[in-house]
Amino acid sequence: MKKDLISIGLMSSDEIKGILSLSKEIKNNPGKFSNVLKGKSLALIFEKPSNRTYVSFAVGMYQLGGNALYLGPEQIKLGVRETIHDVAKTLSRYVDGIVLRTFGHEKLLEMARYASVPVINGLSDYSHPCQALADTFTILEKFGDLKNRTMVYIGDGNNVCNSLLLISAKLGINFNVATPRGYEPDYLLFKNTVAAAARRGVKISLSRDPESAAKGADVIYTDVWASMGHEDEAAKRKRDFKKFQVTGKLVSLAKKNCLVMHCLPAHRGEEISDDAIDGKHSVVFDQAENRLHVQKAILVKLLKHGVKS
User: Fold this and answer.
1) Do 226 and 209 share a domain, yes or no?
2) What DSSP line would sit under 90-146, residue for residue?
3) How far apart (Å, rounded) are the C-alpha atoms in residues 245 and 223?
4) Lower CB density within 10 Å: C or N end of the chain?
5) What is the DSSP letter of 272?
């Protein structure tokens, strides 16, 4: 049976660790994998604009010996020009895998339901699993282990926050969210993840005080205050998040060897200051690079033995 990558919540800890392990092998020995997907094709359906996700998947597929085909909003128009059912069925006859970057998470679920080839979440309004996997790989790469690590997420409880929350609980990373009231991560996801994490001895918390949350942290993570689809709320969000900017001063409250992370694109001077994103603790561009290695691992895992039906 074909496998998809839709959400971190649908992955086991062993599956996550398998991708992280393979990512390390691919990064250290890229030539070994240069033809593992020879003759394979990947459809990139992007309803949202993209830099890192598009380039890393397209380049990754090329470096693995395969081919990537970009299908933007005008070519597809999911659910408008053609139903998701018909797109999924048709593309499954042409390609070996589908990456969908979309607004509504339900579109991913429907695409996966009807496609007979693997479907990968390139981002939805609910989750961003590829980003969380690359972020965790970066933390593991920098520290050598994840044991007793604490990540603090400061800002909007968005799709990235949801995925980081899930992967932290599964891998044993303590996770603290500091966000203004009304901008918390998904309620049911947070509630269920807190309970599951507690059974593993992992601490997850929610606060309104970024300075208290940052104290003693191994990782300080932030993202834009107004994600794609929330541009009309930008002015209000700037006011609401004014005290939640990651600055050099805030970083100084964390551990001396802490990491500063941002999934990009960054709105410098808003959610993060120049001295934080360009400072000695920043691993932002290592994160960006690691999207390539981790997504190559995902492609190998899902496409190498995949068979279209």
Assistant:
1) yes
2) HHHHH-SEEEEE-S-HHHHHHHHHH-SS-EEEEE-SS--HHHHHHHHHHHHHHHS--
3) 10
4) N
5) B
Question: Which CATH number fits the domain that encloses residue 277?
Answer: 3.40.50.1370
Helix axes 159-171, 13-28, angle to 10 degrees: 100
Task: Say yes or no to pLDDT of 62 above 60.
Answer: yes
Taking a C-beta distance cutoff of 8 angstroms, is the pair 41, 91 a contact? Answer: no
- Catalytic status, residue 291: yes
- Asked if residue 155 belongs to a domain, the reply is yes
Report the first-to-last Cα separation within the chain, whole angstroms: 10
Q: Given the residues 52, 237, 281, 291, select the one marked as catalytic.
A: 291
Q: What is the pTM of this model?
A: 0.96
Which residue range(s) make up the domain with 73?
A: 8-128+291-303
Instruction: Please state, in angstroms and rounded to a whole number, the distance separating the CA atoms of residues 220 and 83.
Output: 41
Q: In this structure, what token pair is assigned to residue 58?
A: 């397209």
Banded pLDDT at 307 (limits 50, 70, 90): very low
Residue type, 54: Y
The token duo for 156 is: 């909007």
Of 135, 258, 263, 281, which one is the catalytic site residue? 263
Residue 263 annotated as catalytic: yes
Question: Token digits for 238?
Answer: 């700037």
Give SS3 for 22.
Answer: helix
The CA distance from 136 to 294, in Å, is 10
Per-residue pLDDT of 122-144, as tens digits, reads 999 999 999 999 999 999 999 99
The token duo for 193 is 């993840």
- Indicate if 101 belongs to the active site: yes
Asked if the structure places residue 3 within a domain, the reply is: no
Q: If we measure between CA atoms, which residue out of 46, 23, 221, 11 comes closest to residue 123?
A: 46
